[in-house]
Design a protein that fits this description.
With 207 residues, the protein is mainly beta. It is 0% helix and 54% strand. It contains no helices and 18 strands. Strands 1, 5, 6, 8, 13, 14, 15, 17 and 18 form a nine-stranded antiparallel β-sheet that branches. A seven-stranded antiparallel β-sheet has the order 4-7-16-9-10-11-12, with no helix packed on it. The protein is globular. The protein starts with a strand and ends with a strand.
């Protein structure tokens, strides 16, 4: 049966070390939930795009590796942008991640794009030829983020099933403003996640 997802704990072995604060957008028709040990991201039936779930994270170095393993992607919405997303600490539970007042940067794994917005600007497309996994098969997608000389985030590379692709896109997102890292469902998509982690810290693992 389905177990609603309310709070993530960091567990290593049999030890639970911490509760990790989590934020979710508020316009999901079906909030992310556990099914057969996997996190289900179901953004179908929505009237508002940009749905997300994210976990608190503050960088401890100038490199971040964000990895997701998608076991199945049965519903693929044309023109949508599901993927890996970073937010500033003040995002909270918004109706969507396109709202103003916070930083957003997403790297999608379905529609080739990297987008950004500042607290006061609308969406800006930074890249539109991103290598993408085949959504018809299970895939592992990793994004390597680095701090550049301007103190902002660079999307350095992506890995698809272990193969590296250089990207090197400099963004206006300040490295010091990274506060949450998460999964963007956007809308019109359903996919199943068995693993999501940041620098080898598992935020979602198969149960």
């Amino acid at each position: 049966y389905n177990i609603p997802l309310f709070l993530t704990t960091l567990a290593v072995g049999n030890q639970i070390y911490a509760n990790i604060p989590m934020v979710e957008s508020t316009c999901w028709k079906t909030y992310p939930y556990w099914e057969n040990g996997e996190l289900v991201i179901n953004s179908t039936g929505l009237s508002v795009a940009g749905q997300y779930i994210a976990w608190r994270y503050s960088p401890i170095s100038n490199v971040i590796n964000v990895t997701i393993h998608v076991t199945s992607f049965p519903v693929q919405g044309g023109g949508t942008d599901p993927g890996i997303v970073i937010y500033s600490p003040n995002i909270g539970d918004q109706s969507e991640d396109g709202n103003s007042g916070f930083y957003t940067l997403f790297v999608d794994f379905y529609d080739n794009r990297i987008y950004y917005h500042s607290p006061t600007s609308g969406w800006v497309q930074l890249y539109c030829s991103l290598p993408q996994p085949n959504p018809n098969y299970p895939f592992t997608f990793s994004v390597i983020l680095t701090e550049n000389s301007a103190g902002n985030v660079t999307v350095q590379s992506v890995y698809i099933n272990g193969t590296a692709y250089s990207v090197n896109v400099n963004t206006p997102f300040p490295w010091k403003c990274i506060g949450y890292i998460g999964i963007r469902g956007d809308w019109y998509d359903i996919f199943y996640v068995s693993y999501f982690g940041v620098n080898s810290i598992p935020l979602v693992t198969q149960r």
